[in-house]
Amino acid sequence: MNYNWNWSVFFDPAPDGTGTYLYTLIRGVYWTLGVSACAWIIALALGVLVGVFNTSGIRWVERLCTGYVELFRNVPLLVQIFLWYFVMPEVVPTALGDMIKSADPTWSTFWTAVIALGLFTSARVAEQIRAGIGSLAAGQNMAGTALGLTRTQVYRYVLLPMTGRIILPPLTSEILNLIKNTSVAFTIGLLEITGATRAMQEFTFQVFESFAAGTVLYLIINTLVVIAMRYVEKWARIPGFIGTDR
Amino acid sequence: MHGFDFEVIIRTLPYLFGIGMVFTIKLTVLSTIGALLLGTLLAMMRLSSNRLISGIAGTYVNFLRALPLILIIFWFYFLVPYIYGWIMGASGPISIGGFTSALITFTIFEAAYFCEIMRAGIQSIPRGQIGAGYALGLNYWQMMWHIVLPQAFRNMTPVILTQMIVLFQDTSLVYVLSLTDFLGAASNIAQRDGRLVEMFVFAAVVYFIISYTASRTVKYLQRRMAIVR
After folding, report:
1. Residue ranges of chain B with pLDDT lower than 70?
2. Closest residue to A3, CB basis, from B82, B196, B207
3. Which residues of B touch A70 (CB under 8 A)?
């Protein structure tokens, strides 16, 4: 088999004139982490909101929340990204649409990816929050109420702190999923890790070196997140709970 | 936005469903079967008392689960022709076609996820049953095939079907290889006729209806099975 290995290709200058291919890949890491971090903020904020209201006991509010979750769960992420990127600027008022279309393409793809991934992930976080609150003993809610706390205070001081600590492990996998899912943003032209690897492969024809580099980068990020979250989980562990004893 | 053009959707329905959706369904069903078989084998390996065998399966699963599917799709799209050429003794890579490449990719990738499902399934069977199987004089494979796996499979059916819905949605990622799955077909029309809004909204609606109906059916099935058990 005649494949020409050339591992020094990483130090060749990239055609965009900003540095070597290695630098292209490193910038890819920045984009991946940047999108992930911003999307995670949206996902957590909306996820907690939807998850909490989904346990409110008010029929129509719960329906609305379930609808939200089902909507984002049953459409492929790639289609969602296309909807935000191609469809959204066309259906909003013309002035706003034109503003979006004339924005700097790098940043418009970035924010599109952040919004799409943030909302997609928020539906999954909402499900974790709902399940987490549901898993708490009913007595916690009652005890809070008996102490004279209002509904908001019960959530703020009793239910949510417990839930947050219980659902940390599944949230870790959601973070990992989110980081992996940022790769879908490459389809709208964001040069995150997968996009950078793909660009490098197309310019250099060194297919396997490029993808190997991308693979290693994802493995490193994945490992670092797992290690970091293990510390957080240890720190937030609730004494006396079986599920948290790992 | 000058009104939603339903005409373009109706006109291209035969292409969207006859070519695109057939591709998507075929890929989903075939790779589910392949991934379930490979995943079950991996689950058995992972539960092996042999450290080497369980280590290999564990590494396989953890490695693939740490990587995004799109990257794996690219890997195999370029790697498989080389491996195939090497097996056939050819001097260069042999092209294998988009569908085969996608099928191999999804089988190998999803096997990691099905492995975890089947592992949970196997672990849900009481240990005594394994002992009972051996006591009856069955060997490992007979015991697995006749006693453990049928029950594991049955217990895990809702989860397997849910994973199949995920897989169905994930097949849309073959878009990156410019294959004509349902989304690829919709995107082709969208670009040819300049009907991005109509085609992508329609694609989203179709994916939603199929996935939502399927997940409701799985929930119903789950309730039914819970009563029987």
Report:
1. 1-2, 227-229
2. B82
3. 212, 215
How far is B132 from chain A, CA to nearest CA, in Å? Answer: 31
Model pTM score: 0.91
* pLDDT tens-place string over residues A118-134: 999 999 999 999 999 99
Q: Is A242 helix (H, G, I), strand (E, B) or coil?
A: coil
CB contact under 8 A, A208 and B215: no
Task: Looking at chain A, list the stretches that DSSP marks H as alpha helix, in order from N- to C-terminal side.
Answer: 21-53, 59-73, 77-82, 88-91, 94-101, 105-135, 138-146, 151-153, 160-166, 168-181, 193-204, 207-235
Find, in chain B, the residue whose alpha carbon is nearest to that of A3: B92
- Which of B21, B27, B74, B193 is the best substitution to test chain A (most A C-beta atoms within 10 A)? B74
Q: Is residue B1 a part of any domain in this protein? A: no
Q: Is A2 on the interface with B (CB under 8 A)?
A: yes
CB distance B215–A74 less than 8 Å? yes
Pick from B71, B92, B211: which is nearest to A194 by CB? Answer: B71
CB within 8 Å of B38: residues ≥ 6 apart: B107, B108, B111, B114, B115
CATH number at residue A129: 1.10.3720.10
Give the pLDDT of residue A131. 93
Number of domains in chain A: 1
Shortest Cα distance, chain B CAs vs residue A147, angstroms: 38
Q: Above 60 in pLDDT, residue A246? A: no
In a domain, B203, yes or no: yes
- Prediction ipTM score: 0.90
Query: Looking at beta carbons, which residues of chain A come within 8 Å of B162?
Result: none
Q: Does A184 touch chain B (CB under 8 A)?
A: yes
- Residue B2's pLDDT is 59
The domain of A200 spans 7-235
Q: Given this model, what pLDDT does residue B227 score?
A: 60
User: Which domain range does residue B146 map to?
Assistant: 6-228
Q: Are B85 and A1 in contact (CB under 8 A)?
A: yes
Q: What are the phi and psi torsion angles at B37 (to 5°)?
A: -65, -50
- pLDDT value at A193 more than 90: yes
Q: What is the CATH number of the domain that holds B106?
A: 1.10.3720.10
A230 inside 8 A of chain B by CB: no
Residue A118 lies in a domain: yes
- B66, B67, B200 member nearest A79 (Cβ): B200
pLDDT digits (tens, 9 = 90+) for A51-109: 999 998 899 999 999 999 999 999 999 999 999 999 998 888 888 888 888 888 888 89
